[in-house]
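Figure 2 data, in text form.
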Amino acid sequence: MPLCCRTDKTDFTRLAYELSCVELLTPMRNLSVIFATGLLASLFATGCAGPEKKLGRGMRNFYELVRGGEMRREIEQSALFDSPEHAYTTGLVKGLNRRLARTGIGLYEIVTAPLPPYGPIFTNYLNPDPVYPDSYKPRLYSSPIFATDSTLGFSGGDVAPMIPGSRYRIFDY
């Protein structure tokens, strides 16, 4: 009879119980708990400022897929500096390339937000902050969060900020 199988037959107990060898050799540790504890300890050791900046920058850059600021800027810059014929061809291709690059960098920064280094990457190719065409300067949205006089019914900002390219404003000063 192997060591891991044991039957006790005494006058008091007539039950037989068996333990498999796998159960005896399996450690009682759960690796996910150890990993989560290590991740939490590293978060407390490094602080939260770096990861939150990296996560916010990653979300901004990943939103470029919807926002399209790189494409609008490259089309505008190609029209101004190359020629109007190049605006919708070369500018479109350059803008699409930069748009996809910024989206990929945003996805990378979202996934690696808790891990160092926390500074922006590929700054020689892309500006860490989102870009806009020179003909458009973003302002705050019309929202009770930003408008101090919203209880009186007066506030300003973009009319349709959720639509890319919407530049209609009310109550500009």
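Caption note: The two ends are 92 Å apart (CA to CA).
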